[in-house]
């Protein structure tokens, strides 16, 4: 950890600062999880060792709960699962993800005695648990978890005090990191990374965090590389500058970000973007046409209408009624698009949903139009190297390619690739997928420029012989990763 140093940050507690200069895309440090578990809701669809999504998983023959890609992953995950397996069998049921994570942490502490090493900057005792700041309902839930933990914890394992158990529950409640699937598209689990907990929040950060699943494909586990998080620089960072990440999505207005941070992480954000309410005006503003803006009352009315329609849209989406989703979105867009700015966050949400659902239904041209509008709005709001912008550009590029709009599609794919090279790095699976797409669209673009008619004829013939694969259902993709740290709802 020679690249960083701990310091006392006024008003924030401890923090990390750079011990040398960094540039965009540099890995400042990487860290393996102290422990990590799959979410309860994904237990049968995600490998409990490598956190990859697989269609067919093999179930642990003992506890019947843990699932793995194959015997290689099962062997790789046995060290973490061994005691958990026996405890689940003895308990007779599977405890929730928080209890499972706390148990894995405590088993590791008991096994290793001390978790402090040259690579670890802090101990669990030094991490904040914020038990004194918890709301009454959260405290009740915590007490239930502790009670269930005590029933679950084997009598043959080392016994711990209630204070120690409560502290670890508090730590993971406000410091548990959301673990994604192998492509980084969906939150599938939660883990604890102690060094990451020292990195403070800023709504306009200079770093981002990405989960690197390492290499899990080798038959012999000795050749596996460890699953880890990477703290990556978003731009130039000077020596001695504080390292920061965003705990919540910048797409929220400052008041909402401050509310989320206070509720979930128990601090008041005083960053420059919150203090100055940067971009709040255009996030909730009206559309200017030839120098004329709608009145505040018109913007308020359109905003409220859009909010109400989003509630209906979410309900239809949850029910899998995607044609109803399209109907609701279309009705809302027709009424509010002339009034709301192209950066209005509700408008962006409608465009994003419309693009995603129409692509799923294979109405690619309309999907591409809305995806492009969404990216244009994101560009005006997000940091140039924000991962959410890169993912939106990637989705828009693929949608344009599916619609046969190869010129715009290639441009968007290239933009996405440039961003993800910084935020994810060249070895991440999604960056590799994007590189293959970039090469494909570049080849097709050259063909298109040589002879437009031949290009479209060949494309049409290819699609007849091999229809495009259906996309994932929108409701599964939309779960996404909204915040940096995870709190169980």
What is the molecular shape? globular
CATH homologous superfamily title of the largest domain: Tetratricopeptide repeat domain
Task: Provide the residue-averaged pLDDT.
Answer: 88
CATH architecture heading of the largest domain: Alpha Horseshoe
User: How many strands?
Assistant: 12
CATH topology of the largest domain: Serine Threonine Protein Phosphatase 5, Tetratricopeptide repeat
Strand order of the largest sheet: 3-11-10
Largest sheet: 3 strands, antiparallel
Residue share in helix: 40-55%
- Could you state the order of secondary-structure elements as H and E? EEEEEEHHHHEEEEEEHHHHHHHHHHHH
Percent strand equals 5-15%
Topology (elements, then pairings):
Blueprint: E1 4-9, E2 13-18, E3 27-32, E4 35-38, E5 58-59, E6 67-68, H1 71-91, H2 97-112, H3 136-152, H4 162-175, E7 177-180, E8 187-192, E9 200-201, E10 207-212, E11 228-233, E12 244-245, H5 254-265, H6 272-275, H7 280-283, H8 296-318, H9 322-336, H10 345-360, H11 364-381, H12 387-402, H13 406-423, H14 429-450, H15 452-465, H16 474-477
Parallel strand pairs: 9-12
Antiparallel strand pairs: 1-2, 3-11, 4-8, 5-6, 7-8, 10-11
Catalytic activity: L-lysyl(4)-[histone H3] + 3 S-adenosyl-L-methionine = N(6),N(6),N(6)-trimethyl-L-lysyl(4)-[histone H3] + 3 S-adenosyl-L-homocysteine + 3 H(+)
GO cellular component, one term: nucleus
GO molecular function, one term: zinc ion binding
């Amino acid at each position: 950890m020679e690249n960083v140093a701990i310091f006392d940050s006024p008003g924030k507690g401890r923090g990390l600062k750079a011990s040398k200069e960094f540039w965009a895309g540099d890995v400042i440090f990487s860290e393996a999880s102290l422990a990590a578990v799959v979410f309860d809701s994904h237990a049968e669809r995600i490998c409990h060792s490598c956190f990859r999504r697989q269609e067919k998983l093999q179930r642990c023959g003992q506890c019947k709960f843990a699932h793995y890609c194959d015997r290689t992953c099962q062997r790789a995950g046995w060290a973490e699962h061994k005691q958990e397996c026996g405890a689940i069998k003895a308990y007779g049921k599977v405890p929730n993800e928080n209890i499972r994570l706390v148990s894995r942490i405590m088993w590791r502490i008991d096994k290793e005695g001390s978790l402090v090493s040259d690579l670890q900057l802090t101990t669990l005792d030094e991490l904040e648990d914020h038990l004194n700041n918890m709301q009454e309902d959260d405290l009740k839930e915590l007490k239930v978890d502790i009670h269930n933990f005590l029933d679950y914890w084997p009598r043959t394992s080392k016994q711990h005090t209630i204070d120690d158990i409560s502290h670890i529950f508090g730590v993971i409640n406000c410091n548990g990191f959301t673990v994604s699937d192998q492509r980084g598209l969906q939150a599938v689990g939660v883990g604890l990374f102690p060094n990451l907990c020292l990195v403070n929040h800023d709504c306009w950060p200079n770093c981002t965090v990405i989960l690197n699943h390492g290499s899990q494909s080798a038959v012999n586990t000795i050749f596996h590389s460890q699953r880890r998080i990477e703290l990556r620089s978003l731009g130039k960072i000077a020596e001695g500058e504080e390292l920061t990440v965003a705990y919540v999505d910048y797409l929220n207005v400052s008041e909402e970000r401050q509310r989320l941070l206070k509720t979930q992480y128990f601090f008041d954000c005083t960053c420059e973007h919150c203090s100055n309410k940067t971009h709040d005006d255009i996030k909730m503003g009206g559309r200017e046409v030839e120098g004329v803006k709608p009145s505040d009352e018109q913007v308020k009315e359109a905003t409220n209408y859009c909010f109400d329609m989003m509630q209906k849209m979410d309900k239809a989406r949850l029910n899998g009624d995607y044609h109803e989703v399209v109907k609701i979105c279309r009705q809302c867009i027709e009424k509010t698009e002339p009034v709301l700015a192209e950066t209005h966050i509700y408008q962006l949400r409608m465009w994003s949903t419309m693009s995603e659902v129409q692509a799923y239904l294979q109405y690619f041209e309309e999907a591409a139009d809305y995806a492009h509008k969404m990216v244009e709005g994101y560009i005006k709001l997000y940091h140039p190297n924000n991962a959410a912008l890169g993912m939106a550009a990637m989705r828009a590029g693929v949608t344009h390619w599916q619609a046969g709009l190869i010129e715009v599609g290639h441009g968007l794919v290239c933009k996405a690739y440039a961003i993800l090279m910084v935020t994810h790095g060249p070895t991440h699976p999604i960056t590799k997928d994007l590189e293959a797409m970039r090469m494909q669209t570049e080849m097709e673009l050259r063909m298109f420029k040589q002879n437009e008619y031949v290009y479209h004829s060949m494309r049409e013939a290819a699609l007849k012989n091999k229809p495009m694969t259906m996309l994932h259902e929108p409701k599964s993709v939309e779960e996404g990763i909204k915040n940096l740290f995870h709190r169980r709802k």
